[in-house]
Specification:
TIM Barrel, nine-stranded parallel beta sheet, about 350 residues, Lyase, Ornithine Decarboxylase, Chain A, domain 1
Amino acid sequence: MQFGPCATVDRNALRHNLAQVRRCAPTSRVMAVVKANAYGHGIVPVAKALISADAFGVARLGEALALREAGLGNPIVLLEGVFSVEELAAAAEHGLELVVHSFEQLDMLDAWQPTRRLHVWFKLDTGMNRLGFRLEHFGEAWARLTRSTAVAARPRLMTHLASADETTTAYTGGQIRRFRELADDIGLERSIANSAGLLAWPEARLEWVRPGLALYGISPFDDRWASDLGLQPAMTLATQLIAIRDVKAGETVGYGGAWRAERDTRVGIAAIGYGDGYPRHAVNGTPVRVRDKLVQLIGRVSMDMIALDLSAMSDAAVGDPVVLWGEGLPAEDVANYASTIPYELVCAVNQRVAMEYK
């Protein structure tokens, strides 16, 4: 048994979630988003598990090159595009697809002497106000892109939703409408939907969808768990109990005495902390699973350890398995107690944590 924190990634769960995405958007092609080390799950093993995806989406050139070096020949889309001539040349050499979202990138394409034409995604800003051409600049930018000798025929169009996880907001509907008013008549392939978009907004399921979080078996919504959506958690973060102590009523546990025992309490110490990526701001009462029973976090999270209230587990013993999230304990639930989002939980798991794949 692996001592200390270990993140186990279930490849069958990844494949199940991809199949669930396809059932949700049966006429769409799927760009599996594997940026940020596949949301902490391991970019190369995850991509190999999701080899049937129609394309992979990454943020940066290094992520794309890691996939190519691993032998993956799927289309790979650089979601932020490139930022230098050297990156542009590397993208062409490795057959990468570019998102173009700024006039600076258009200038770079115009000045480049292509060795081969690049497949390009043209990004419109419909209200995210992060990347993309503003709608009033569409005509100028689109004309420049389509006459560029560096760009292959039939670019694709995309936008990004700012609030798709808020299913009652009118903002998302406005973004979708603005995009489709421009893009529907051009006759090219389009993409709007991220995970929340494809699960909650049918009108966003166009020729391509771009799921990220859903592939890892985590819900993008505050009011629904992954299981409600037919998704299976891909990562289980686990460790073991390394000590058990009897704390008397009135005594405190951990740094700063942030938790005080109201009665004599059995306390378990588990080998994980913020030095492994467990959220330091998880509060007293955050659920943790010891064997098959939910218990509560007590005291402040340390760099290497957390303390647990084992009052209801008289038979708990050193070496017992401890699950922080995953199988039997949704990451969404833990994120709520830590005042964060599940994206951050899984992305924060760091190199000190062993990774296993099954």
